[in-house]
Amino acid sequence: MVRRAANGLVACAALAAVALACDLTAPADGPPSYSQVPDFELIDRRGNVFTREDLRGKVFVADFIFASCTSMCPMLSSEMARIQRTLEVEPFWDEIRLVSISVDPEHDTPEVLAEYADRYDADPEHWRFLTGAREEIWSLSVDGFKLAVGDAPAGADEPLFHSDRFVLADREGRIRGYYDALSPDGRAKLLADLRAVVGAPAETSSAPGSLAGQRGNPE
To answer: Which residue spans within the chain are E strands per DSSP?
Structure first.
């Protein structure tokens, strides 16, 4: 819980820095635009090169995880799997990508990520798991997505720390929002904002357990 609170503070500080550094715009399709996801070149779970260009024209949700994590990452991946199940029945599913990037690439080879992805029944075309060089991935997290990552202090439960935020980006790779992946309000707001960015009608379902149509407070 202490680490989650620390991650939350770091994420909020990062967002404040983004807001100060950028002239936030409010596109017609929903939430404001924060910054641009930079170019990158990583490797997917099939061993193929995967770049920023592979996401061009797609609305995507990204997070950072590592396969040997036993605390926060299983919860993050379970929530990403929930998003997959929610969206895969939508007519705009082909316009969506989910992206999980390992912050422990020395351990998380494509083979390891393939096994990890299978645990969550990840759709191999829509939910991509990426690895690569640690320096590039950590720079992508900190400088690209504005999310903290690093070696955990001595005595921590896990060897690494990283953000628990999901990030929404639009078809042009502009970051449109940061969401607390482990909060029901955060997940509901992500789904509502995603629908706005993709251009889908607002969900009004009141079915039990439905996350869509609920709006949480902005982070």
So the answer is: 41-44, 49-51, 59-65, 96-102, 127-131, 149-151, 160-162, 165-169, 175-180
Q: What residue segments make up the domains of the chain, in order of their start?
A: 2-198
Is pTM beyond 0.70? Reply is: yes
Is 1.10.12.10 the CATH classification of the domain at 2-198?
no
DSSP 8-state code for residue 115: H
Cβ partners under 8 Å of residue 134, min gap 6? 103, 105, 106
DSSP per residue, 46-89: TS-EEEGGGGTT-EEEEEEE-TT--SHHHHHHHHHHHHHHHHTT
Which alpha helices (H) appear in 132-182, and where do they start and end? Answer: 134-139
Strands 96-102 and 41-44: unpaired
Please give the distance of CA 26 from its chain centroid, rounded to a whole number: 21
For the stretch 64-88, pLDDT in tens is: 999 999 989 999 999 999 999 999 9
To which residue do tokens 């990062």 refer? 14
Residues 6+ apart with CB under 8 A from 21: 35
pLDDT, tens digit, for every residue of 20-77?
344 455 566 678 999 999 999 999 999 999 999 999 999 999 999 999 999 899 999 9
